[in-house]
Specification:
Number of helices: 1
Number of strands: 5
Order of helices and strands: EEHEEE
Shape: globular
Strand order of the largest sheet: 2-1-3-4-5
Mean pLDDT: 88
Radius of gyration: 13 Å
Strand content: 25-35%
Largest sheet: 5 strands, antiparallel
Number of domains: 1
Length: 103
């Protein structure tokens, strides 16, 4: 069984609305990051999804293997003026939430 992590990509409407959608995963973190920055497949959906989170996920339930690992989560926020996602801090609304993509 492959025990290498995957990197899930989850779009989030906004903290106030809370709608999330895991739209895919990658085996390489760099490709996941570049895909988000490029707004691949129009993941922003014309302004609908304000945030994207990339999570490092391993096998098992609730992703416990990587919860405290470096780069466990990377957050991005849509920038309307540049029409792209830019890396940001995790929104306060989600500071106590994990496992957006799986779990």
């Amino acid at each position: 069984m492959n025990k290498e992590p995957i990197y899930t990509v989850t779009t989030i409407r906004s903290p106030s609305f809370g709608q999330t959608r895991c739209i895919g995963y990658f085996h390489e973190l760099e490709i996941a990051i570049q895909s988000v920055k490029d707004n691949a497949m129009d993941m922003n959906e014309a302004g609908y999804y304000h945030y994207v989170v990339i999570e490092k996920v391993g096998p098992g339930f609730y992703n416990l293997a990587y919860i405290n690992a470096e780069n466990h989560e990377m957050w991005f926020k849509w920038n309307n003026s540049d029409h792209e996602y830019k890396e940001c801090e995790k929104p306060d609304h989600y500071k106590r939430t994990v496992c957006f993509g799986i779990g």
